[in-house]
């Protein structure tokens, strides 16, 4: 038992690794602050395009969404980071992560938001238009808020996945929290920094996980 505690729960090593892990946490939060809003905006655009009356646009977006949902996010990240230089575009690891995660999350958010929009009864469109609202105003102020409310548990759940997704950024040597914890592990030959990072992830995401559960129960009622 003592060996287990020393290897995984060594408080002295955790204390020494904490500044490095917190530095990585800043990068993790930065990725989230960029990717989550971009993903939501992209998701709305994807949802609108997937309902377009223009068949070519609808088919193109559907194929892109299917591709992004079928490919592992790690594969997308490697393709973006390693493939763009062959096109003459040299980008930083942070830019590669943002592009790859945006493509992935816009696809998932888009499908969730599309389902939310389609869950709003057609009568809501007609009632809003009858008050004199234009089509864009009806969508923005009546349909979209109701659609988002209907799929709020799924949106929050996907956002939790986005935060966990940031750990893949270590593959392109972006010093996010897991990368920093692994650096500390390699220096100390001890897994305690990894456990420390796991505890921070838990502290960040547990409230969101409980929120998803409450929202799901509320929706069921």
UniProtKB/TrEMBL annotation:
GO CC list: ATP-binding cassette (ABC) transporter complex
InterPro entries tied to this protein: AA_ABC_transptr_permease_3TM, ArtM/GltK/GlnP/TcyL/YhdX-like, MetI-like, MetI-like_sf
GO MF term set: transmembrane transporter activity
Membrane topology: Multi-pass membrane protein
Subcellular locations according to the entry: Cell inner membrane; Cell membrane
Domain ABC transmembrane type-1: 25-213
GO biological-process terms attached to the record: amino acid transport
Gene3D superfamilies: MetI-like
Regions that span the bilayer: 28-49, 61-81, 87-109, 187-206
UniProt entry keywords in alphabetical sequence: Amino-acid transport, Cell membrane, Membrane, Transmembrane, Transmembrane helix, Transport
Role this protein plays: Part of the binding-protein-dependent transport system for glutamine; probably responsible for the translocation of the substrate across the membrane.
PANTHER family reported for this sequence: GLUTAMINE TRANSPORT SYSTEM PERMEASE PROTEIN GLNP (PTHR30614:SF20), MEMBRANE COMPONENT OF AMINO ACID ABC TRANSPORTER (PTHR30614)
Family: Belongs to the binding-protein-dependent transport system permease family. HisMQ subfamily.
Record's protein name: Amino acid ABC transporter membrane protein 2, PAAT family
Source organism: Bosea lupini
